[in-house]
Design goal:
Layout lengths: L7 H21 L1 H4 L6 H16 L7 H19 L5 H42 L5 H15 L5 H10 L1 H9 L6 H17 L1 H10 L2 H8 L2 H14 L1 H9 L3 H6 L6 H17 L2 H9 L2 H9 L15 H6 L2 H18 L5 H11 L5 H18 L3 H13 L4
Helix pairs in contact: 1-3, 1-5, 3-4, 4-5, 5-6, 5-7, 5-8, 6-9, 8-9, 9-10, 9-12, 11-12, 12-15, 15-20, 17-21, 20-21, 20-22, 21-22
Organism: Quillaja saponaria
Protein name: Armadillo-like helical
């Protein structure tokens, strides 16, 4: 690709973004705009067609766009000439209207493809630049994450694969010579690619060092990405975490002084509980997870959801079943927002019970094991009774 000059590049991008919006308008509102010669969308498109030699000829990747604009001009002129009231004129207008809408779609697609190439090329060059501008690189990483998060595109995927961008992002994440800020944004880019198409990119995560590095970084952003990856990849990733001996490190986040890290550590534990197989859950219990959860639950930021007392006789009479459930969920959410470790033992137990990683008999056995460990960890019978009641009856969400 022959890049536009640094001076022309931003101008081309600005013009193409406006052109993309105009093309989208033609497809979204074809019925009442296509017959108007002063339509802002058509006007914008035709004005660019007039300038195409100056703006588009500098980039061979825009040659198809230039041809689409020429075809659009021809169709609009044909539409304007078919102003009669005969059946032939009516059919001609209908065909021209359809063709204009179709070409507008092709124009939008060509513009997006050009923008995607620019995003990938600029980011690839910036990641490989030893004299990198950190602010510029972060901006490009955010731009890439936002684009990938818009949904799947075969052309965009091909660009990512051709540029080997996933490997570049992983290399930056694993390189301590890059700043923590850049490494974290690279991690967000990796998570976005997994959401973009898990089937294509999951192998890179399972075979690479991404997960180990995220855990070793032990920042709120890296653990947020780790939780996202577990939700996306599910049991295979939990298997990898367990086989690499990383579960004790994840549980250690619950001991951090930083509250946000503790909360994210709990989120991670809950995700592992939902997707983990027997070996992963066994490891968590052997590492003293239940004792730590009991400590968190009886702390100032803990509490028992069972004590909220939302099931009053008045509510049962006056509120519908759906309304009552909604009210309960709303109260639980408000309480957990202020007390993030409320009923965390039962919340973990419920994750095992409703999760995907365990067989039914394993779920029953682990519930009894959790009850036993709660009684061992509790400082009083009353404290144990409340937590055990929540575990046995699943009063946690």
């Amino acid at each position: 690709m022959e890049d536009p000059s640094q001076e022309d590049g931003p101008r081309v991008l600005k013009v193409l973004e406006a052109l993309k919006q105009a093309s989208h308008e033609l497809q979204t509102h074809p019925s009442h705009k296509l017959h108007e010669s002063h339509s802002s969308a058509i006007k914008a498109l035709l004005e660019l067609e007039n300038e195409s030699d100056k703006i588009l000829s500098k980039d061979p990747n825009l040659s198809a766009l230039s041809q689409h604009l020429t075809d659009l001009k021809t169709l609009v002129e044909s539409l304007q000439k078919s102003g009669g009231h005969s059946l032939r004129s009516f059919l001609s207008r209908r065909i021209s209207t359809y063709s204009i809408s179709r070409i507008a779609g092709s124009i939008e697609s060509e513009i997006q493809a050009w923008i995607d190439r620019e995003i990938i090329d600029n980011l690839t060059r910036a990641l490989e630049d030893p004299f990198r501008d950190e602010d510029k690189l972060v901006t490009l990483l955010i731009q890439f994450e936002e684009r990938v998060s818009q949904g799947f595109s075969r052309k965009l995927q091909d660009l990512v694969l051709e540029s080997k961008l996933f490997s570049l992002l992983e290399s930056v994440l694993c390189n301590p010579n890059y700043s923590k800020r850049i490494r974290e944004h690279s991690a967000f880019g990796i998570a976005a690619l997994i959401r973009f198409n898990k089937d294509v990119f999951v192998g890179h995560v399972l075979m690479g060092a991404t997960v180990r590095v995220l855990i070793a970084m032990a920042s709120t952003q890296s653990i947020e990405v780790l939780c996202s990856l577990i939700r996306s990849i599910k049991s295979p990733l939990v298997d990898e975490i367990e086989s690499n001996g990383e579960i004790p490190k994840i549980i250690s986040f619950l001991n951090f002084q930083d509250l946000q890290m503790q909360v994210l550590g709990l989120d991670c534990v809950l995700e592992i509980g939902y997707f983990g197989r027997k070996e992963a859950v066994d490891t968590m219990l052997k590492e003293g997870l239940i004792k730590k959860l009991v400590e968190l639950q009886i702390s100032e930021l803990g509490g028992d959801l069972i004590d909220l007392g939302w099931h009053t006789e008045k509510e049962n009479r006056e509120v519908s079943v759906v309304g009552l459930v909604g009210k309960r969920e709303s109260r639980e959410k408000r309480f957990i927002d202020k007390h993030p470790f409320a009923s965390c033992v039962a919340r973990f137990s419920v994750q095992l019970e409703v999760g995907e990683g365990l067989r039914q008999r394993e779920k029953r056995a682990f519930k009894q094991e959790i009850v036993r460990r709660v009684r061992e960890a509790s400082v009083s019978d009353a404290e144990a009774a409340t937590i055990v009641a929540e575990v046995l009856w699943g009063s946690s969400p």
